[in-house]
Write a sequence for this structure.
């Protein structure tokens, strides 16, 4: 057993003792500090999956910002519904998929959308480039004004929400824009017409907006589809004066009827794609149901 | 399609097969048996007959209970058209369903709703307008009211009666003497006030005595 070293009086003495006991520094003594170089570590196969991993949160794809880990169907906004000021209506708020003018221009340029035909939610969803989920309260498209400066297509477009700049851009290019409401069932038919027809369900009668949206869609300023035509023309002139643009003379076909979901298909029609035939109801009660006056959607938020 | 028929035939005949040789000859003619064997040898996919029909672009037969429901019939019509043999009338809502929807009354007439919304908006507009008018009137009256109030405050200060002033003075004195504020309603207040007065008197007396002493010393000197 080694003799225990005599206790050093000071740190200087201890250092001196270390230096006395150590060998001379030679070339082979030179080496990196610990941790200066590391070798690559072989991960186990499940953890080496190009961004897709299993297991714990620190390895997994991260949840959206603001998400607190827990029950997915009971988010914290619902667990702590304390303040009315912040996200009070998060569970009932309507969502509109943003579609900018520049994106729409690109769709037209690439031939996904025909600018000569009326562009509506049916045409936009038929491109299969957008996913609208009515059960998540997504209600259609919001046409945003990015790319308004370069917009030049005289299109006839119908979206669910539009800003004044967008409206001005579309109209100054010689187009026509209308904002229109689709109730959830009509929306379900419109976003996937083929599936709807193949399910054998009749084309639904489109409902007018619920009370909370009536004022938006009957406002000529928003080019609402329920607004008066003469008032819309007046609002058009006003907006062009405000924005300092000129309005080219243009003519378009009649707008889609407020009760219609698809252009050229009346409500109540059953479409058989196999036979290339459209069937209409003959029973007077059923016919009345589809042909009666415009009904408003139920109050939802 | 064919195989289903044949296999059914074989199955039904299979029972007879055990009984007598006569019935066996009746149930399975040789050519049928050959056809079955040929078909079985051709079916290399091992799909079920239903799926073979679908894959070949045909209409599968109604096999299961769920296929007899109305929604399934609708879907059948939507997918296979008139050839499916489904009555188109099944696809529209029934009179009962229409009546029920009307009875629930979820969907009111648009014009009715529009009228209601317009009325609500007008009411809100009127309320806002009234409120703004009220605020404007108040704003006009405000300088006069403020001046009046401030004058009243000054007057109040002046008119404070002597007793109150004395009490305030007393409080201030006590605070200055002891170094902290004490509530005049506190029973200690009176005691402390008394103590303070006593101490002051004592100090005054001492000062008097000192002066007297000084005087006498001066006289003696």
């Amino acid at each position: 057993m080694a003799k225990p070293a005599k206790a050093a009086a000071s740190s200087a003495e201890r250092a001196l003792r270390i230096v006395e006991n150590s060998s001379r520094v030679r070339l082979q003594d030179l080496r990196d500090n610990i941790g200066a170089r590391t070798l690559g570590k072989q991960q186990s196969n499940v953890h080496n999956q190009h961004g897709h991993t299993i297991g714990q949160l620190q390895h997994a794809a991260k949840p959206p910002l603001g998400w607190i880990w827990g029950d997915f169907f009971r988010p914290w906004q619902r667990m702590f519904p304390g303040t009315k000021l912040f996200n009070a209506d998060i569970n009932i708020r309507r969502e509109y998929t943003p579609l900018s003018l520049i994106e729409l221009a690109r769709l037209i340029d690439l031939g996904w959308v025909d600018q000569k035909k009326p562009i509506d939610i049916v045409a936009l969803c038929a491109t299969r480039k957008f996913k609208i989920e009515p059960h998540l309260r997504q209600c259609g498209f919001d046409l945003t004004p990015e790319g308004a400066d370069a917009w030049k297509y005289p299109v006839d477009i119908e979206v669910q929400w539009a800003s004044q700049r967008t409206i001005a851009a579309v109209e100054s290019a010689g187009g026509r824009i209308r904002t229109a409401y689709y109730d959830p069932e009509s929306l379900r038919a419109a976003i996937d017409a083929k599936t709807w027809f193949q399910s054998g369900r009749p084309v639904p009668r489109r409902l007018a907006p619920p009370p909370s949206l009536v004022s938006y869609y009957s406002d000529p300023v928003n080019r609402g589809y329920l607004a008066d035509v003469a008032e819309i023309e007046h609002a058009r002139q006003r907006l062009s004066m405000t924005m300092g643009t000129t309005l080219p003379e243009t003519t378009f076909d009649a707008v889609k009827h407020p009760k219609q979901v698809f252009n050229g298909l009346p409500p109540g029609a059953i479409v058989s794609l196999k036979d290339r035939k459209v069937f209409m109801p003959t029973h007077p009660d059923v016919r009345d149901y589809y042909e009666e006056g415009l009904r408003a959607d139920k109050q939802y938020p | 399609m064919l195989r289903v028929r044949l296999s059914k035939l074989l199955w039904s005949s299979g029972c007879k097969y055990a009984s007598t040789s006569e019935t066996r000859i009746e149930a399975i003619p040789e050519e049928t048996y050959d056809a079955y064997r040929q078909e079985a040898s051709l079916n290399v996919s091992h799909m079920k007959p239903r799926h073979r029909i679908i894959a070949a672009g045909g209409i599968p037969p109604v096999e299961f209970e769920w296929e007899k429901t109305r929604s399934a019939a609708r879907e059948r019509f939507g997918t296979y058209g008139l050839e499916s043999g489904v009555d188109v009338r099944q696809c529209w809502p029934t009179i009962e369903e229409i009546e029920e929807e009307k009875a629930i009354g979820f969907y009111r007439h648009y014009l009715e709703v529009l009228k209601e919304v317009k009325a609500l908006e007008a009411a809100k507009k009127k309320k806002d307008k009234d409120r703004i008018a009220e605020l404007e009137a108040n704003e006009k009256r405000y300088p006069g009211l403020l001046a009046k109030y401030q004058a009243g405050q000054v007057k109040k200060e002046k008119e404070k009666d002597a007793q109150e002033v004395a009490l305030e003075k007393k409080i201030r004195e006590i605070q200055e003497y002891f170094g902290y504020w004490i509530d005049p309603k506190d029973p200690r207040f009176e005691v402390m006030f008394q103590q303070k007065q006593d101490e002051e008197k004592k100090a005054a007396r001492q000062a008097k005595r000192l002066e007297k002493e000084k005087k006498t010393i001066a006289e003696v000197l």
